[in-house]
Amino acid sequence: xxxxxxxxxxxxxxxxxxxxxxxxxxxxxxxxxxxxxxxxxxxxxxxxxxxxxxxxxxxxxxxxxxxxxxxxxxxxxxxxxxxxxxxxxxxxxxxxxxxxxxxxxxxxxxxxxxxxxxxxxxxxxxxxxxxxxxxxxxxxxxxxxxxxxxxxxxxxxxxxxxxxxxxxxxxxxxxxxxxxxxxxxxxxxxxxxxxxxxxxxxxxxxxxxxxxxxxxxxxxxxxxxxxxxxxxxxxxxxxxxxxxxxxxxxxxxxxxxxxxxxxxxxxxxxxxxxxxxxxxxxxxxxxxxxxxxxxxxxxxxxxxxxxxxxxxxxxxxxxxxxxxxxxxxxxxxxxxxxxxxxxxxxxxxxxxxxxxxxxxxxxxxxxxxxxxxxxxxxxxxxxxxxxxxxxxxxxxxxxxxxxxxxxxxxxxxxxxxxxxxxxxxxxxxxxxxxxxxxxxxxxxxxxxxxxxx
Length: 453
Description:
The chain has helices at about 15-25, 60, 70-80, 95-105, 120-135, 155-160, 200-210, 235-250, 270-275, 300-305, 320-335, 340-360, 390-400, 425-445, and strands at about 40, 45-50, 55, 115-120, 140-145, 175-180, 220-225, 255, 280-285, 295-300, 365-370, 370-375, 405, 405-410, 415. It is of the alpha/beta class.
């Protein structure tokens, strides 16, 4: 018997009733991808309020690399509850904050002294990284990239590229933000091909300093090692090495946004390790807390020390429960070798996805790093026009068959893999079978002739 067990259609009657109440109580702008309401979860499985058991390939948008309700995380939380729940590190500090900071400093790439502090979310961490960079350099400008997603606060929304739904109607945005095309090789902004292009896009940073903003005014360049919401696009190693080198030439800090790539997702604890770069500031969140809200900024000690006393911090940043969960997460990552497991999952997915690509021309690209894998859907392989409706149809068919999965991308035409890294192999294979069945139905529908009127 498979892991998926459906007792009702998706969504079932109990979920439909909750959707009715949701529409009356919750603002329309709050999005939910899956049509079901969760009742309980374990590992890579989710059970909804109708008793339907589903396989989770979304992981709370990448927050559950160690799985739902990891036993060691739960044990750490129960132990912490018996000590203290909230104290505020800015009032009465506590030892777990120091322990996790030490572990993050030791684990982050870079052969230099580091320091770490904690906040609640990825957006908050990005915003603080920018604050610290500006304070240290005394410069105002930040360079970011097209197709990036850095958060939903005013500053991070300004850094984010995609207009709908993230930015439309929410302006005006923060100033001193400058943007360049990312190394999105499948959709190269300069109509070039890698590696013959010699990462032309990275060297456009020098052009920006001539045409857009003076290098001596730039505090930092921020980039995701693999685009997250922008479509799971891994930038070539050479791209990041060149960007980092240009930054160093001009005294500009490089900020790596590893909110979605970090904590083992890409086959190393941090994607920067795969890319062989050493960011001045490293931002982590999502799976760091094992399901609880926690984010971190880790960076060069002299950079992190730039803000004055009280210049950074917050009421709930580094909450004791979240810290306890994160310490357990790092132990699980190491003991269960989940970074290596990410590569295994990625290899298996890519093998299946490339086979699907050979069958259906609507799958234009298969890409990723480690277990952060994706397929991009197009109307045809020549024009590469985005096929958002097709991607959404595949996602809907997966949901109806008991697989929770998400789309992504600036054009909404990418399906992404965010499965817990410790998913049992049979459950992973069952999920891939469901995905293949959804592809068969959706892609065959695309090739059916239009009925005559």
